[in-house]
Every structure is written in C-alpha cells, then in structure tokens.
Amino acid sequence: MTAVFTVPDMTCGHCEKTVRGALDEALPGAAVTVDLSSKKVTVEGDANKAEEAIREVGYSPERVAA
Asked: Would the pLDDT of 66 be above 90?
C-alpha cells in the first residue's frame, strides 16, 4: 500500500533527513521518497505507522490521496 503525505513544516534538508530516518526505522525496507520542494512524502507500507513515525519526530503530516 502506498501512503502519500504533505508535511508543511518540513522546510530544510535536516527536516528531510529526520523524516526519512523516522520512516526507515518504523518501516524497515520500505520504499520512501521525500520531495522537500513539494513537501511531499511517499512511503510503501502501513500508512498509520508512517504517519505516527512522522508525528513522533515533531512534524505534522497530512494524508493525501495516492
């Protein structure tokens, strides 16, 4: 299952790295794409786990249609 999120408070390379790291830890081996310019994160796997992982590192993901 593909989950797509907009993360409006992801503003820099450090934010991107933090979000990617949280998703890699929560969903090991899942394909993760982070596009800082559009503030969009796409992840293969459990959408709820992905959303929770992003929130746990301090960001506000908003789910969008894949």
From this structure: no
